[in-house]
Amino acid sequence: MKRKITLKQIARELEVSISTVSKALKDSDEISKDTKQKIQAFAKLYNYRPNNIALSLKNRRTKNIGVVIPDIVHHFFTTVFRGIEKYANERGYNVIVCVSDESYDKEVVNMELLANGSIDGFIMSVSAETQQKNDFHHLREVMDQGFPLVLFDRVIDEIECDKVVMNDEEIAYEATCKFLEEGKKKVALVTTESYFNVSEKRAEGYRRALVEQGADYDPKLTLVVPFRGGEESCIDAFFEEEEFDAVLCVNEVFAVQVMGIAQEKGYRVPEDISVIGFTNGLLSRYSSPTLTTIAQHGERMGEVAAEMLIEKLENEIGFEEEETYRTEIIEATLIERNSTGKKK
Amino acid sequence: MKRKITLKQIARELEVSISTVSKALKDSDEISKDTKQKIQAFAKLYNYRPNNIALSLKNRRTKNIGVVIPDIVHHFFTTVFRGIEKYANERGYNVIVCVSDESYDKEVVNMELLANGSIDGFIMSVSAETQQKNDFHHLREVMDQGFPLVLFDRVIDEIECDKVVMNDEEIAYEATCKFLEEGKKKVALVTTESYFNVSEKRAEGYRRALVEQGADYDPKLTLVVPFRGGEESCIDAFFEEEEFDAVLCVNEVFAVQVMGIAQEKGYRVPEDISVIGFTNGLLSRYSSPTLTTIAQHGERMGEVAAEMLIEKLENEIGFEEEETYRTEIIEATLIERNSTGKKK
DNA sequence: CCAGACTACGAAAACGGTTTCGTGTTGATA
DNA sequence: TATCAACACGAAACCGTTTTCGTAGTCTGG
């Protein structure tokens, strides 16, 4: 076992000072050609690499980014994460992930830990519980301490910071219109409880489309599936109680469940009932019929978030200069597959 | 913006030395009650937290774990990751993820970077390219430098280190037997190229079952799907060329594709063709019919891997004491759903 | 009254780098 | 030959902790 070699060891071995070694390895012209060559050769031989921790301490920057997400076994979040990781890596940053597991407390604890020097800035999507509680002091806290923060997807209007969101309202509008163009008359919505602000935006787009296009908006055609459990029976009951010929779902799991139950009940998809879901994951691609879906371009979101964060990190803002924040919108796209029909 | 407060600042403010502050905060009995109370109160007021980086430098341990995986948008890996993250967090460790993207070079570069002080040990699953090249010097390298290494799932026999694997051979054997018990005669296997050693193990279990149970093992009934692209047509051709009444697939994507194509061709699942896949993900749960599948218990694997690593980290091995390595086996379980029939 | 023992604290080294600021030596110039 | 710049290098501070060791001052006992 050979420990990593340090400047000090090189210095001792070559009988020069630590400063000389440091400068020589940076090819400083304060050092003579001879000495530099000798030192560089030696360093190469022993595969010298500066210690990241020492650098972090000295430079007061870790080149680490903290990513806090509600869940990791989740197509959308992993997709975003991939984008973050790719971009960050290209720029020489590493990524530390903490999973809040939709819990407010875990989110708070994790962020506090990371804020004690482990990272230079945060990229996060807030937990469900945090949205419910409406308590964002931990976000304010880290920002006060000078950490740049980029929120994505589940963002908080009250917090001023950089944000990356999808055009949820718009694309839900488009999806709903697509149903109407198909000739569908009664479009339903299957969504989650509304403290998820993205769900709320999607619902708005859905309603606006119906109203603007002169179709009926019937509140009874909106099914709010409770947070955990009983989705199956919930959707089943919805079929029994209401009548509809198209369903917009806020995620792909709901969408395939709707298709499954519809087919069990003898409806044909898309002839009798059209379905569109959010999230272009594996389910959408391999369900039968394949699912028309809204691609959220999570990877792009991640890239953009990382880019915004790193820009803030590297353009250290001047003393009392006015801080400005941006909100980037990633355009979702509708991917047509076989759970919807042709335009009439 | 208030930067985090340091010992030095507290010391100056309270007109004591840095050492006194440090000791007082550790409740050392070298310091008088009065002084301690004063310092502790002040520290609490300003929410003092020791700087992780400084601690890392001092203690020569970061309390960070490096996780290197081939892909993150992948059910199994995220599941394992969740297990790692959970356990690590409980033990006060953070997790830095690097995605090799199945590339040898990225794997090497990422590990070198992490090894320069960012982490205390590695948990990894090697990339496809690395398995192909059969070049593991980067693993040896980090071990030589004293980093504990835990491999999971895609492990390397030539490397001596802690490992966590699934009983791939065994469970493939069981799955194959299940087909035979159902009364199936010609069991096919759909797999990936064999440099994935897990695929190889699964294939072995499959073959052993056929031979031991007195069924035919016909090499023509094994379909090797190329690494990227053309799965669809590949499977389609397989149906045209061969005849079989059961298919074991090494992942759930292959499994649902097989079911889809089978159904298109007019076969009934499971009456005409039974299907079992590996990976108990969303697809298995929501395909139609729902897929009988092999649950890999990734979360458990992650937990065990993290536990093994942290144990190594915390029981710093004595000088020249003999190092011992373990291989933990996680038992997979067969989850019966509707793509297989009843025992005859 | 003084040696010895506590008590309560501070100085300094160490972790591994970077960087500023000297400073001794050399060579050129007046 | 005296002066000065340029060259090549080293000392030391600093980043924020922990920890060892030293030491004033007070107290106790003989």
From TrEMBL, chains A, B:
SUPFAM superfamilies: lambda repressor-like DNA-binding domains (SSF47413), Periplasmic binding protein-like I (SSF53822). Gene3D superfamilies: 3.40.50.2300, lambda repressor-like DNA-binding domains. Keywords: DNA-binding, Transcription, Transcription regulation. The lineage of its organism: Bacteria, Pseudomonadati, Bacteroidota, Flavobacteriia, Flavobacteriales. Transmembrane segments: none annotated. Residues 2-53 form the HTH cro/C1-type domain. It comes from the Bacteria. InterPro entries: Cro/C1-type_HTH (IPR001387), HTH_LacI (IPR000843), Lambda_DNA-bd_dom_sf (IPR010982), Peripla_BP/Lac1_sug-bd_dom (IPR001761), Peripla_BP_I (IPR028082). Residues 5-59 form the HTH lacI-type domain. This is Transcriptional regulator, LacI family. PROSITE patterns: HTH_CROC1, HTH_LACI_2. The keyword Transcription regulation applies.
